[in-house]
Write a structure and sequence with these properties.
By secondary structure, the protein is an alpha/beta fold. It contains 14 helices and 16 strands. The chain has helices spanning 7-19, 24-33, 39-42, 55-58, 60-76, 94-106, 108-113, 123-132, 221-237, 283-290, 303-309, 312-320, 325-338, 344-347, and strands at residues 22-23, 84-88, 115-119, 138-141, 152-157, 166-171, 174-183, 188-195, 216-219, 239-248, 258-261, 264-266, 276-278, 281-282, 296-302, 348-354. Strand 3 (115-119), helix 8 and strand 4 form a beta-alpha-beta unit. Bound molecules: S-adenosyl-L-homocysteine.
Length: 369
């Protein structure tokens, strides 16, 4: 399938003509977040009619269980007033709406004193969130640092995979950065390698020291910054954070850059700005950064274990008691999909951060999963 000449493709072509090949993180940042033509500004990414579907869009039970997890973490912390409920990359706002509906119903004293803070860089996503959360008092931020300090409960579902990565390739002449250039003869974007002066291997995980030619190593500097900010916040003010995403448990090699449009994979260099570009999350690296703070990190465990421990099946059965046949089928299918052994249940991982000296949170205790 031929690539479409999008406004973003034209803009990137000009940048490359002037500055030379660009890093993958710069490419991803522009493709996803350009304020005029970036993917998250102009498209309908989520849901059945979008390019992909996320857990909260599959079933309300996902957000309800996270709401209950928040509630139990809040109680363990001694029910602090003015707790900040923070979501990173809230998409359509569905997850936060499900969390708030649940905590309001189950423990109104928690809901009444809580503050809602959303971290979102896309104006068009923010408009959707305003609509979904119109009954609540919400504050938006461009990054986590600008959320006021205080006891915080943080949720990031499919946020880290959207943050831009850089890739490094081990050639016969040492490590090079994988970049993107424009081939004028073929009229297409393509990958190229650029030597990195003063490449500081000491800053890379020890696995990179002894690897084979053509190994690709990915680094996500923005996700490192977010991990640092989460660690600091929980260490100084509590309470807990949940990171849910697809990714790998051990750092390693491999090219995980991917693009999805209309529920199908496609070349990330095609139709720029019109497909969702992501990379798998390096949970080991995030964990290492978090563990640099005086906190506890739990997991990652599979989404299947986490949601099953939290009682997804019981919750679905309860809802079915008052649901129509059609609704019941939808509920059962949705919950099954979230915990499918050969699907989202194992692909997605859940990691949590808590203060020290608190019990292991629900969903992370050792079981036979
Ligand atoms: N959590 C949602 C949506 C995940 S998609 C869900 O589960 O349905 C990623 C979200 O992160 C989008 O809202 C996107 O606009 C936002 N986002 C992507 N990069 C970001 C960045 N650098 N800073 C803040 N938000 C970002």
């Amino acid at each position: 399938m031929a690539s479409i000449v999008t406004p973003l493709a034209q803009r990137l072509q000009k940048i490359i003509q002037t500055d030379g090949p660009i890093s993958i993180s710069k490419f991803m940042g522009i493709a996803l977040n350009d304020k005029d033509y970036g993917y998250y500004q102009t498209n309908e990414p989520f849901g059945v009619n979008g390019d992909f579907i996320t857990s909260p869009e599959i079933s309300q039970v996902f957000g309800e269980l996270i709401g209950l997890w928040f509630l139990s973490s809040w109680k363990i912390a001694g029910c602090p007033k003015e707790t900040k409920l923070i979501e990173l990359g809230p998409g359509r706002g569905t997850l936060m709406a499900d969390i708030l509906r649940t905590v309001k119903k189950v423990e109104s004293s928690f809901f009444k004193t809580a503050e809602i803070h959303l971290v979102e860089c896309s104006l068009s996503m923010r408009n959707r969130q305003e609509l979904a959360l119109k009954d609540y008092d919400v504050t938006w931020h461009k990054n986590l640092e600008s959320v006021p300090l205080g006891p915080s409960l943080i949720i990031a579902n499919e946020f880290f995979d959207a943050l831009p990565i850089d890739q490094y390739l081990l050639t016969n002449n040492g490590w090079h950065e994988k970049c993107i250039t424009f081939n004028n003869d073929k009229n297409i974007f393509e990958f190229t390698t650029v030597s990195v002066p003063n490449f500081d291997i000491a800053k890379f995980p020890s696995e990179t020291f002894d690897s084979e030619t053509n190994s690709v190593f990915e680094r996500n500097r923005m996700s490192e910054k977010y991990a640092e900010a989460i660690g600091q916040r929980i260490a100084s003010n509590g309470i807990a954070a949940l990171i849910i995403d697809y990714g790998y448990v051990n750092s390693g090699f491999g090219d995980t850059l991917q693009a999805v449009r209309d529920h199908k994979y496609q070349n990330p260099l095609f139709d720029i700005g019109r497909s969702d570009i992501t990379a798998h999350v390096d949970f080991a690296n995030i964990k290492k950064i978090l563990e640099g703070h005086s906190i506890l990190v739990h997991g990652p465990v599979s989404q299947r274990k986490f949601l099953t421990d939290l009682g997804i099946e019981q919750r679905a059965m309860k809802l079915i008691e008052t649901a129509s046949e059609k609704q019941s089928l939808f509920l059962i299918k949705g919950c099954q999909r979230l915990i499918a052994k050969n699907g989202m249940g194992s692909l997605f991982k859940v990691m949590s951060v808590t203060q020290k000296n608190v019990p292991i949170p629900e969903g992370f205790q050792l079981t036979n999963f």
